[in-house]
Design brief:
There is one protein chain. It is built from 16 helices and ten strands. It is an alpha/beta fold. The protein is globular.
Length: 446
């Protein structure tokens, strides 16, 4: 009788996924025995004067990789001939006597003739191609409505927001528009929104510790150690280590400054995931140039330390901040005007007949070249008749350039990083991982 009860108990636990959970804890214990108290080594201790960030990160990556097949960092992204459309909604004003009569008559006529109303669509992204590798940060520049936000949504796999998409977006050579593939990479993605939304009474440490608890579940080896280290290391990398015990604050509660609060928002996103791909949309909103520069430096340091990829869209960025980025993506009307190394962009537009005035920042200059009302002000007077006159001409020039040819050659060869997705686990354990934060978005824990 006792054996029957034990067998039934095991079956119930197995149905609930508890046995798989127990397997993870058993494996966790084995790894903690194998690696011992590695964190006592001064080189691994963030509070030690001998702290070696690279050595500690390599140790964490090795443990995480051995545990679930996820080695943070090492992700590469490519997108090839990506296009997207959205439906155009009819703008309806206030009803008049005429429109009240016309609408039902037209609807009845359409039904009687067995014809459907043609859906009008607008192309928000058109035939974009490019690639980014681990450790690189990309600056996205576009005029309002130019496609920056749509592009970031597409390469983060949010295709459901569009009516029709084409092309492919590859993470380490795999198409993430396939839902089954995307599920394996979802833990790698994180988005930083424009607004800073926090509980003002919590300290920075409490805010980041909660985020780390969501991103590093209890069954991970050395979970508590990794959480504490991640909060400390990320806070230092973003220049807010000195604010850890200060309330975040808001308009009615004194806390960190506006620039520091933006860093807290970025740090919270980083701490809440083991991933290495970040999308930061217009994070300079409401910040002055000096604060934006400091944040860009912090993002660059973080990307280098964690071998992460960061896409950032900014407004009114100064030259010093501009030069920190590895690549620039310039969009207009959803089309690529330029994508390539930051150091080549000025020379490229000079070859098209433009010349940056000394009084103009680089960001202001490149946003002016395709603006019909501003392009002549940044044109070389001797080549005024040679410059491209519209967006399609800019696209044609870019796609015939050496920079684009190099990108095409690399895309044809294939762009594949060394890590990123959960592998070599059975479906039951993957389900447990998803339920315990690793593949869940941060939003549902707030």
């Amino acid at each position: 009788m006792e054996g029957v009860l034990d067998n039934a108990y095991y079956k119930v636990r197995n149905l609930l996924g508890l046995e798989k959970n127990r397997e993870l804890y058993r494996f966790k214990e084995e790894l903690e025995v194998k690696y011992g108290r590695w964190y006592d080594d001064p080189k691994m201790d963030p509070w030690s004067g001998s702290f070696d960030m690279k050595a500690r990160q390599e140790m964490e990556d090795r443990i995480v990789d051995e545990f679930i097949g996820v080695a943070p960092g090492g992700l590469s992204i490519s997108w090839n001939n990506v296009s997207a459309e959205v439906p155009l909604e009819e703008v309806k004003g206030l009803d008049t006597v005429w429109t009240s009569f016309k609408r039902p008559v037209m609807s009845t006529a359409r039904l009687a003739s067995c014809t459907e109303k043609h859906e009008r669509r607008h192309t928000v992204i058109s035939n974009m191609s490019g690639y980014v590798e681990g450790g690189e940060i990309v600056l996205i520049q576009a005029p309002p409505g130019g496609g920056a936000s749509s592009f970031m949504k597409l390469i983060s796999g949010k295709t459901e927001l569009f009516k029709d998409v084409s092309g492919e977006v590859l993470y380490n050579g795999e198409n993430i528009w396939d839902k089954d593939i995307m599920r394996l990479y979802k833990h790698s993605l994180q988005t930083v929104e424009q607004e800073d939304q926090h509980y003002p009474m919590l300290t920075v440490r409490e805010t980041l510790s909660f985020a780390a608890s969501c991103g590093i579940p209890d069954f991970m080896p050395y979970a508590e150690v990794m959480r504490q280290h991640r909060v400390e290391v990320v806070a230092r990398a973003l220049g807010i280590g000195h604010t850890l015990d200060t309330p975040v604050g808001d308009a009615s509660l004194r806390g960190v400054s506006g620039g520091e609060r933006k860093r807290v928002t970025i740090a919270e996103a980083i701490c809440s995931t083991l991933g290495s791909l970040f999308f930061m949309d217009n994070i300079s909103k409401g910040l002055d140039a000096a604060t934006t520069l400091d944040i860009c430096r912090s993002i660059q340091d973080f990307a280098r330390q964690y071998n992460a990829i960061v896409f950032v869209s900014l407004q009114q960025i100064g030259n010093e901040a501009f030069e920190l980025f590895d690549k620039v993506l310039l969009l207009d009307q959803g089309k690529t005007i330029y994508f390539g190394p930051t150091e080549k962009i000025e020379g490229y537009f000079e070859s098209l007949g433009f010349q940056r005035p000394a009084s103009r920042s680089m960001a202001d200059f490149i946003l002016s070249v395709s603006d019909p009302g501003m392009s002549e002000s940044v044109a070389n007077p001797a080549r005024l008749n040679d410059i491209p006159k519209n967006v399609d001409e800019f696209v044609e020039k870019y796609e015939s350039s050496e920079i684009f040819a190099e990108i095409e050659a690399r895309l044809e060869k294939g762009v594949c990083g060394s890590a990123g997705k959960i592998v070599d686990l059975d479906e039951d354990i993957k389900r447990v991982l998803r339920e315990d934060c690793l593949l869940n978005s941060r939003a549902q824990f707030v």
